[in-house]
């Protein structure tokens, strides 16, 4: 018996057979983000020539990529009904672990990356276990993790290096091959595409398949829609939510690895505050704050909107302060549009 058909609405990516084209579009959470991305793309394409140049395209794709990697993982967690406020600082924590082991302990970069991955997965598992064990809101639990990691980042880095920065990883053994995986560039015409863009595309495709084509994806929608009902029909709720927190931690490791191997240095306070941008990108992409509804493709598109808008403002030579106004309007509009689309989708399914 399919859990999803018992306790949740049908997946938004699989509308009922015979539905009209309009209804098929309405039930997809990412449709609002797609329309918004098209509007932003057309707007900046018209007002500035640099936006569509090879360098311009590579720049806003690069800007959106690391945000997109995190937004996809955060979207899955939000669909599952939880939040992770430690996602931003996790990108710095994993980069610092890698850099400290490779530069100051003399480890091979690949071994340092493996330890930082285990560290990230451990923190993610702890977050999920505490949330499910205590019943505390994930907002509070991960806020505590955020503060703890921020303190560790600053304290340990200053203790070992005497500063709040670690650099010099390019001289460590194994950097060349690790750098190719996480920080290489691909030339497409005159555009130089960063490895983070490839990671973003691949992880979005994998997450989309998992969410709409696997039993685990059904479990995510189930625990986000109704945890009590999910448990009643046998969904392993604890395991599902712990794995979701580990997914956001894994995404933080990927972003941290891309950053440290590309820029060869990391600040202890890096990533602080970005967790809200991840959540905003997921909400813009169609995720509801109440859980049980959303799309990882939409979250990726939400990150793309961020990248296009942020770099489009630069190309247009506007004051970058206007970007925060854009974020506020975008968030409010996305919440209103998502609620309207969800209500319409529910009527279509009936």
TrEMBL record:
Question: What Pfam families has UniProt attached to this entry?
Answer: BPD_transp_2
Annotated membrane topology = Multi-pass membrane protein
| Keyword Acetylation assigned | no
The regions listed as transmembrane in this protein's record are: 31-48, 60-79, 85-103, 110-132, 138-160, 195-212, 219-238, 244-264, 276-309, 321-341
Quote the InterPro entries the UniProt record gives: ABC_transp_permease
List cellular component terms (GO): plasma membrane
State the Gene Ontology terms under molecular function: transmembrane transporter activity
Q: Where in the cell is it found?
A: Cell membrane
The reply on keyword Glycoprotein is no
CDD domains listed in its UniProt record? TM_PBP1_transp_AraH_like
What is the first-listed, main subcellular location in coarse terms? membrane
Judging by the UniProt lineage, the source's domain of life is Bacteria
- Keyword annotations of the record: Cell inner membrane, Cell membrane, Membrane, Sugar transport, Transmembrane, Transmembrane helix, Transport
Its biological function? Part of the binding-protein-dependent transport system for D-xylose. Probably responsible for the translocation of the substrate across the membrane.
From the Swiss-Prot or TrEMBL record, give the protein name.
Xylose transport system permease protein XylH
